[in-house]
Amino acid sequence: MVGQRKHPIMAGAAAGILECTINYPMEYVKAQLQVGTHFKNPLQVVRETVNRVGVRGLYRGYPAFASFMLPSAATRFYAYNASLSLFSGLAPVHQALFAGLAAGVAEAGLVFTPCENVAITLLHDQMQPSPIYRNIGPLKATFMIAKTRGLITFWNGLTPNLFKIATCTMIRFGGYKYLKNITLEFYGKDSSAELTTLQSFACGAMVGAMSVPLTHPFDVVKTNMMALRGPYAGKSMLATARTLLEKEGYKSLFKGSSIRLVRVTSEQAFIFMFYEKISQLLDNVSY
Question: pLDDT band at residue 208, thresholds of 50, 70 and 90?
Fold first, then answer.
């Protein structure tokens, strides 16, 4: 169950990197749809990328993305695990909701936003005719970005990220707890029992799908704010959203929503499944 675990950092980090490796091509396609104005649909992104540089092109920017998914997932599950005791007087589902909210705030502010700024900067840079950070590792690129654009650039998009991630984690942890409880009840099991691998996968998929419609506009605004070049780079959340609405209409806030729905559904299915199974293994290890 997604309750208090003995090794949330190790289990969260392992689950995050495994999920990222499986699902990264969808993250790449989503980013292209949100900032690449000539792309009309996910299949066009895949086709043009594969024709231009081969299948490996769908993993462009993967090292940078993976390097922040690991600490991001570790922080999320650790913060959730630590926050459960703060809300111990609440009903289990409400406890999971508020602990998820706290985990989302910690993840967005401490890890996700700074790391994602580096990842998106590198991804967009590789799409330029003359990339600035070609053949440069994420660590060296991070120092170069800090030197040329200032430390504050790592927190571009913090506000929409706080809204998006805090809402997402609240829905996902609270929803997962609720679905876990009714699943165990349906099969006549005690509430302290563990879900099967397939049940964890299914519950994770459902909470992932539920979180997308409510949070996708924040994701679009955030991605445009973090772009290396473009009319929205460095603007505030409200200014970016206003300009998008004025220039492209309300549909602009749902660019890439179809691929994000598939991506997040798959992401949460795998990450909850991996986290549960890895946690069970680590919790049973004797020292």
Answer: very high
CA distance 204 to 179: 9
Q: Which string of DSSP letters, residue by residue, matches 161-214?
A: HHHHHHHHHHHHHHHHHHHHHHHHHHTT--TTSPPPHHHHHHHHHHHHHHHHHH
pLDDT of residue 99: 96
- Number of Cβ within a 10 Å radius of residue 167: 17
Q: In whole angstroms, give the CA distance from residue 203 to residue 195.
A: 9
Taken in order 160, 175, 32, 135, the sign of the CA dihedral is: positive
Residue 160 pLDDT more than 90? Answer: no
pLDDT score recorded for residue 103: 96
Phi/psi at 218 (5° precision) = -65, -35
Q: Are 78 and 8 in contact (CB under 8 A)?
A: yes
End-to-end CA distance of the chain: 22
What is the rounded (10 degree) CA torsion for 104, 240, 49, 118? -50
Phi first, then psi: give them for residue 142, nearest 5 degrees.
Answer: -60, -45
* Dihedral sign, Cα of residue 84, residue 18, residue 60, residue 46: negative
Q: What is the pLDDT of residues 265-287, one digit of tens each?
A: 999 999 999 999 999 999 887 55
In this predicted model, what pLDDT tens digit does every residue of 1-27 receive, in sequence order? 466 788 999 999 999 999 999 999 988
Q: Please count the other Cβ atoms lying within 10 Å of the Cβ belonging to residue 141.
A: 18
CB 35 within 8 A of CB 261: no
